[in-house]
Amino acid sequence: MPGSDSTASAVAELRSRLDGEVDDSGRRRAEYSSDASNYRVVPTAVVFPRSDDDVAAALATGREHGLPVTARGAGTSVAGNAIGPGLVLDFSRHLNRIVDLDGDARTAVVQPGVVLSTLQRAAAAHGLRFGPDPSTQDRCTLGGMLGNNACGPRAVAWGRTADNTRALRILDATGVERTLADDLSAVPGLDAFVAANLATLRTELGRFDRQASGFSLEHLLPERGHALAKAFVGTEGTCGLILDATVDLVPVPAATALAVLGYPDMPTAADDAAALTVFEPLAVEGIDARLVDVVRRHKGPDAVPDLPRGTGWLFVEMAGATTADAIVAAEALCHSSSALDARVLPTGPESAALWRIRADGVGLAGRTRDGNPAWPGWEDAAVPQHRLGAYLREFDDLMHGHEVDGLLYGHFGDGCVHIRLDFPFDRAPQRFREFLVDAATLVAAHGGSMSGEHGDGRARSELLPLMYSPAALSTFAGFKTLFDPDGSLNPGVVVDPAAVDADLRVPAAAPVRGAGGFALLEDGGDLSVAAHRCVGIGKCRADSGATGGFMCPSYQATRDEKDSTRGRARVLQETINGTLVTGGFASEELAESLDLCLSCKACASDCPAGVDMATYKSEVLHRRYRRRLRPMSHYTLGQMSRWTGIASAAPRFTNALARVGPLRRGGMRLAGLDTRRDVPEVAAQSFRRWWRRRAPRTGGRDVLLWVDTFTDGFTPDAARDAVDLLESSGYRVTVTERRVCCGLTWISTGQLGGARKQLTATLDQLEPHLDAGVPIVALEPSCAAVLRSDLVELLPDDPRSPRVASATTTLAEFLTVATTADDEPWQPPDLTGVEVVVQPHCHQHAVMGFRPDRALLDRAGATVHQLAGCCGLAGNFGMERGHYDVSVAVAGTALLPALEAHPDAILLADGFSCRTQAAQLTGRTGVHLATLLRR
Fold first, then answer.
1. Distances in whole angstroms, Cα of residue 309 to Cα of each of 342, 345, 427, 649, 731
2. pLDDT (tens digit, 9 = 90+) per residue, 503-529?
3. Engineered SS bond to 139: which of 175, 238, 288, 541, CB 3.0-4.6 Å?
4. Cis peptide before 552 (omega within 30 of 0)
5. Which helix (H) or strand (E) holds 214?
6. How far apart are CA 628 and CA 591, in angstroms?
7. Per the confidence metrics, is the pTM higher than 0.90?
8. Reduced DSSP (H G I as helix, E B as strand, rest coil) percent helix, strand, coil of the chain, to 5
């Protein structure tokens, strides 16, 4: 590697030659030091090219200064294909345009940074789609798919990415632009190369569809049409940089149906898979029962539709001219199968829920059934279809012999298996290599491939001699040399490979034990284990709003890796590593990374790996500022319950001061707040003051109304409406004797010692009600979430904590099971004709879910427009100085467009911050569910 002076010179030269950005900061290099693999390679700089000229300039500068170049799309490569020393070129930020889409010719020309789902939406307008569809399709880029020869479930019908590629425009390592199609003369010397290697190309390559390891040079054969573009696909960025690609599109089926087949085990399901392909299915996917159990544990039994008997299933998708035709085809397949049991589902919510399980498999499989972290490495091996069952049985024996375990799933119709294994990186990392060698030997014995779609990368390239002859390996090297004579493109991959156990990320991470903050119960109390839940699958980069996802609002607003959950996790991991980010939890890199995290907790539920960045941010702030001076906003917004109590004692005086412009602006500056915000008006009479003056009620079943700080001091009408609603249903409402606080604002600012004091006092107040078996109804969703989740993490040794968590419900959850004084099920009022825009609170989405609320509104007959995504205020976040612009941008992703589209609708938002955001940005006044139901 070049010296530091040469590196600085190269970076300075890059900045002068490029229109795009060049970033060599420690924080940025940390974000790009890993992809979705086990590996960590810190780049010299990250480049965001804006044009072909920028790509050429970056390549030339790297060549002149001895810096290797690695191409990167969404960074979802699980084998270490998208990391490297030198320059990492991120094509996803700017080079993401669909250059042309010809519906008649059924082709598209795309830049490498185009996200697959973007192409699919554009093609759908013509009744078309791109055939291959990996589970990461809502964030993976076409460039990455071309690099790895990606496949996905429907490759069984439409082939791999190579099969759908017509032409490529590339830069080779010397900076020469070449157009690759079906003419070998495009690359000098290629004709002679093919002629000299015909025997190897014909006998060792292209033996079955999923032979992705090595290079797919069989496409160069004359009988295969000298298909140079197809041969280039799958070279993993080692032979050139793609500028654009011409790809084929296929017609979207008129209708589909899903056959779900149950088997006694996964090998038996695999035995049946090959025979089912004669029915020409669109997809044949295998799913292990243990993977489904993970979904049930994390999201509840309702998250999984009824499945046929068995402990292993095949999901087989069939097409038809109509839904009825597709169902008939699926039923015929079921009758022909050897399944124990079967079920056919038309395309709809149930089939979509099952496909989501399959799509999230890579994250769901990140923990074994025993709760141990599971890792990629032997991620996507493939064998010929008729060998799959036998391979799985022997693979099971191999796992037992090496004392590792994992959850199976995969593309059984293509003979491809996905699994993540609990390699003991923390105590015996050498066992990783031992297992990979034995696994590669096993798959080769079955005539298979170590990679079926993800490429070899750093995880398998060293093992290619176990699968290929020296002649084949020499052929791969010779092909690369024609494009990259100096080996400067993605070094360490396929040709001249790095060791499979070099540069592993997890063994370099020391444990980080508790420091009086969160217990991190599911991670053994170790912040390092928690941070390494993020394996980089990148779902936080996807716009998942259409399927009800909320993650990650800051990334959706900025489109910067820095502001994704993954980017933050990478910087936290590097902080723990301590070699790149050296300032510990007080480092500026970590502070900058976490600054725009809204603490919305959406990742806690939406990330398949269970990353909870809100908790990690609180823990980091706790460690950084413990016994130190904090930012002023921590004392103001973070200790809101104190100041609200004081303000409620003199509401007129407080509101009058807030209306004096200079005083308001000066006070907000001193408090660390953004002066573009309004100060919420304190209620003239707090709920507790109203409650004390109210005549006590007698009779009825007791229910405790949790009166939070915001409801008490700012929106007491919601609590009064809740009291009326509950009492009219035959309940006797009680409240705690003293003011209580869940400590939410203390938690979000990392004042975890103060939060524990607040929660301990809360438990003291709740204890007599718990002993009496009284249910707790919380009106503010964020407070309910604290009592349901954070409480147990902050006070794990207090036996009252789990009791409170079990007793706490939202209003909708309570009403769902409530009965009247006559012991009849509670019925909502008739809301027929009432149009409602619903903004669920992020913490409710993450911890409790919104299903009971939606079911209640549907029962009432309301016309509901339910939003997915954060409002952008997120408690203290949007009020703090420096966050206003991002807060508004986040609101612009869902809330603001919905309110504009439905100007006459009622805004329903149980969260005080959600209602505040809408009021301040649009003038629309939102209501709580209790108020809506009292109409």
1. 8, 15, 39, 63, 43
2. 999 988 889 999 999 999 999 999 999
3. 541
4. yes
5. none
6. 15
7. yes
8. 45, 15, 40
